[in-house]
């Protein structure tokens, strides 16, 4: 709880940020706010060295062998656009899933509408998990890319990425993984899984600021640049720089965001990634147990497994999710996400295309008291919707 607010929307962005992250951002940016890699004077060189150090941190975190292939982007959406649009050509076929966020669905839909690619989307099973065999079955001779979310931002289910990657590798098809919901929660292993690229965002479980994230690229993966500009190197050439990371980075980097991302990652590792995840999953189980006991509340997320992420979606019978969210906020001081969560197809498959769902997502600073407060609030809302006297769960 933060100043009376119970914040349970950490799948959208983690809040509050650790004080150490905010202090570090202000301190370093005040002392070293020069443009990294854009000058030979000490401050610029120092800023460039800081950025390179963060690349090394992230390469270690994502099990990537080459820090130069850690490319900074504005967020996971930006990174996914870099990967998707830089890895397909006219006539290619792409396989993805119906679990995806619009950061995958919309670039792919755009390319399909332009006639560049053909596309197949694989559904999940009743447990919210994609069958790797279904991914293979959707492949064709023309398949040149597979894109899969590591965890559903609607259901919280982690997908069998390692198995999918192995099957893709057997067929010579690169796999791009959207790790927006898993980076900072569960292990993401680029080299061990043999995936082509991992897109991540810094502002969710990694505890960094908004506007931070990137793409981690495997040594053998080929991603063509799709935007062009200054890189600080090869400036005499009108052809964009071919070497990584500059190949996919155009313009001045978000130094402030990179500073915050590094400190957020440092804070998270200090707390223990596994310990934080275990604690958050305990909270989501407490929430699920309480909600499933309430008459008039439907829980759409399956029973969480140990390696899922702390996300739960639900609905209240006879009440629009937007109204549930508004009451939680105005009457109970609880912040949640309502609607389609930028994932329209999985909501359509759940029969919720018209209005979506209510999503709870605890974070590193959430407590059992927060969950109990949310359960009491949902009990009151469900009772009111049904015309019953409220009771505590």
Describe the structure.
By secondary structure, this protein is an alpha/beta fold. The radius of gyration is 22 Å and the shape is globular. The two termini are about 20 Å apart. The mean pLDDT is about 95. It contains twelve helices and 13 strands. Strands 2-8-7-6-5-3-4 form a seven-stranded mixed sheet, sandwiched between helices.
Please describe the structure with a list of short key phrases separated by commas or semicolons.
Aspartate Aminotransferase, domain 2, 2 domains, 39% helix, 393 residues, 14% strand, 4-stranded antiparallel beta sheet, 7-stranded mixed beta sheet, Aspartate Aminotransferase, domain 1, alpha/beta, 12 helices, single chain
- Going across the biggest sheet, name each strand in turn: 2-8-7-6-5-3-4
Q: Structural class, from secondary structure content?
A: alpha/beta
Detail the poorly predicted runs. Answer: none
User: Total domains, how many?
Assistant: 2
Indicate the radius of gyration in whole angstroms. 22 Å
CATH topology of the largest domain: Aspartate Aminotransferase, domain 2
Number of strands: 13
Average pLDDT for all residues: 95
Strand content bin? 5-15%
| Assigned CATH architecture of the largest domain | 3-Layer(aba) Sandwich
Shape: globular
Following the backbone from N to C, one meets helices and strands in this order, namely: EHHEHEHEHEHEHEEHHEEHEEHEH
Helical run tally: 12
CATH class of the largest domain: Alpha Beta
The CA-CA distance between the termini, in Å, is 20 Å
Biggest sheet, open or closed, and with what strands and sense?
Answer: 7 strands, mixed
CATH superfamily of the largest domain: Type I PLP-dependent aspartate aminotransferase-like (Major domain)
Considering DSSP H and I runs of 4 or more, what fraction of the residues is helical?
Answer: 25-40%
């Amino acid at each position: 709880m933060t100043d009376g607010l119970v914040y349970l929307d950490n799948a959208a962005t983690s809040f509050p940020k650790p004080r150490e992250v905010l202090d570090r951002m202000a301190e370093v940016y005040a002392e070293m706010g020069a443009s990294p890699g854009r000058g030979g004077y000490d401050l610029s060189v120092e800023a460039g060295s800081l950025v390179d150090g963060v690349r090394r941190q992230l390469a270690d975190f994502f099990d990537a062998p080459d820090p130069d292939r850690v490319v900074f982007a504005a967020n996971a959406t930006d990174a996914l656009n870099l990967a998707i649009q830089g890895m397909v050509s006219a006539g290619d076929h792409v396989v993805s899933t119906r679990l995806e966020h619009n950061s995958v669905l919309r670039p792919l839909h755009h390319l399909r509408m332009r006639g560049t690619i053909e596309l197949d989307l694989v559904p999940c099973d009743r447990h919210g998990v994609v069958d790797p065999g279904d991914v293979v079955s959707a492949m064709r001779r023309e398949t040149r890319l597979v894109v899969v979310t590591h965890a559903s931002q609607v259901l919280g289910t982690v997908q069998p990425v390692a198995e999918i990657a192995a099957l893709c590798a057997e067929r010579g098809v690169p796999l791009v993984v959207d790790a927006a919901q898993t980076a900072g929660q569960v292990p993401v292993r680029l080299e061990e899984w043999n995936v082509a690229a991992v897109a991540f965002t810094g502002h969710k479980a990694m505890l960094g600021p908004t506007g931070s994230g990137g793409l981690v690229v495997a040594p053998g993966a080929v991603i063509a640049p799709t935007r062009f500009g200054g890189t600080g190197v090869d400036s005499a050439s009108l052809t964009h720089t071919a070497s990584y990371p500059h190949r996919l980075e155009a313009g001045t980097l978000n130094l402030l965001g990179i500073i915050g991302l590094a400190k957020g990652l440092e804070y998270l590792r200090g707390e223990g990634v596994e310990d934080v995840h275990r604690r958050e999953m305990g909270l989501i189980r407490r929430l699920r147990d309480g909600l499933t006991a309430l008459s008039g509340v439907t829980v759409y997320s399956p029973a969480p497994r140990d390696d899922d992420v702390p996300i739960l979606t639900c609905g209240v019978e006879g009440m629009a999710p937007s109204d549930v969210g508004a009451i939680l906020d105005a009457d109970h001081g609880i912040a949640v996400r309502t609607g389609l969560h930028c994932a329209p197809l999985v909501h359509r498959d759940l029969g919720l295309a018209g209005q979506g769902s209510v999503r709870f997502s605890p974070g590193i600073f959430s407590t059992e008291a927060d969950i109990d407060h949310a359960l009491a609030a949902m009990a009151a809302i469900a009772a009111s919707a049904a015309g019953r006297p409220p009771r505590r769960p």
